[in-house]
Amino acid sequence: MIEPVTPDAQAGILDLNNRHAVELSWLEPQRLAALVGEAFHARRVGEAEAFLMAFDQDADYDSPNFAWFRERYPRFVYVDRVVVDPAARGRGHARALYLDLFEKAAQAGHTVVTCEVNAEPPNPASDAFHAAMDFEQVGSAALHGGEKKVRYFAKRL
């Protein structure tokens, strides 16, 4: 069952996020709470089997990836982070979270959902997932002095 990321669920979400900090980036409790408060959509499966957090173009968010989309799209929803606990993989949680987001975005009048996927370090599972969800590459960037490379994707709703 998909539920909002409520304050009482944030400890589990923080733990899940930080176990995947290489892919997502480390968060402190206060930063997670601020991001959830700013999010267009923040949902979880179970206590912390999986979660997704997305922002729209009006968010007060300092991510360079978010800024890349803001410079190119007047209106969009940006998936900032999505993760599934390894013990819960293969159950369709990521797909369900994305479908839930697509529905919410369409209801709000959005026509495009965006995200980035790591190219360096590579994330082949995420590549395959986003291809299956009909995302198309729309750009790329090197971040942190070239230590991290990402590819930008968009899906028309």
Automatic annotation (TrEMBL):
CDD domains assigned to the protein according to its UniProt record, in alphabetical order: NAT_SF (cd04301)
The UniProt entry, under InterPro entries, shows: Acyl_CoA_acyltransferase, Bact_Acetyltransf, GNAT_dom, UCP028520
Q: Which PROSITE patterns match?
A: GNAT
Source superkingdom: Bacteria
User: Where's the N-acetyltransferase domain?
Assistant: 1-157
This protein's record includes keyword Chaperone: no
What Gene Ontology molecular function terms does this protein carry?
A: acyltransferase activity, transferring groups other than amino-acyl groups
Sorted alphabetically, the keyword list is: Acyltransferase, Transferase
User: Is DNA-binding included in the keywords of this UniProt record?
Assistant: no
What is the name of this protein?
Answer: GNAT family N-acetyltransferase
Q: Which organism is it from?
A: Nitratireductor mangrovi
The organism that produces this protein has a lineage beginning with: Bacteria, Pseudomonadati, Pseudomonadota, Alphaproteobacteria, Hyphomicrobiales
